[in-house]
Request: fold
Amino acid sequence: MSGLEIYALTGAALVAIGLHAIAVRPSLLVKIIGFNVMSTGVFLLLVGLAPRAADGGPDPVPQAMVLTGIVVAVSVTAFALALTRRLARTTGCARLPEDA
Amino acid sequence: MPESRRRPARALSAIGCATLGASLGWMALSRSARESDLARSVSEASTARGLEHEVTAVLLDFRGYDTLLETAVLLAALTGVWAVHGTLEASRGESPRARGTRETIDDPSGLVDGLLRVLAPILLVASAYLGWAGSHAPGGAFQAGTVLASLLILLTLAHPIDPGAALSRGARALSSAGLWVFISVALGTGLGGRAFLDYPTAWMKPLVWLIESAVAISVATILAIFFVEASRSGGERS
Reply:
């Protein structure tokens, strides 16, 4: 235990919360927020689990991966929001059909 | 579907997600704390390559291909947003209605302008510092680009621009500049008889600096355009 497990544990909880929101909430906006919560959890998990380097510094490889992941998540969020807005404008409703 | 029939599905999802979270947490706790050989080899290799900051070395040198594709992902998302919003048709004037109107903020007190006068120089300097610091301290192209984007967003809030302006040649050139510079450098190293994206160590600093500046400007432009597109209303109504 190095006291850093709290970050990884928070990350694990965020992944679960985000995934649940994506799975059960019909609103697309909530799904996008859930996706962002989940990806934040994955980033926290990655950084929290990163092995310490020999000199006690952080391992740069997971940090670089997380940095790349954040940018990709932002891109995906922007595109998903644009799609949702288009759907809302076209159908008047930004939810998935519930009795499919 | 009535609420009563949705409840089992919700419970199932809750149980599944809780199990996933618990097993991730268990994995996090039970993982034996070991030293990373990878971190040491990255540290040694980046010192040998003349980049003092390991994260930048990983991003631009060892995993340069990832970062190249990451800039491509940003550009692809921007293209997607433009396509979905019908911005291209709007800018060609095919449907004048589709140009839409920008929501503007009423600023009779000049508060936003005053704030901008204070913030703009600070944000510019902070962004330039973050970009410059990338080679030896935490910082880099994406951080610099994000700070610059916040300045651009504040500017568009204070002085609303025509949505068409976000599609001007200049804006398009700036948003793709990072990718073009990155690809040119990558092809250049190929023409020089080296592998794709394998920079010569002597050229490392200037090349990384060139790529980082171009990528930072592209990131800032793309993020600001995302914002302008999102605040544009009525664009895609046909």
In short: Strands of chain B lie at 101-102, 232-233. Chain B touches chain A through 55 residues (CB under 8 Å). The CA atoms of residues 20 and 26 of chain B lie 10 Å apart.
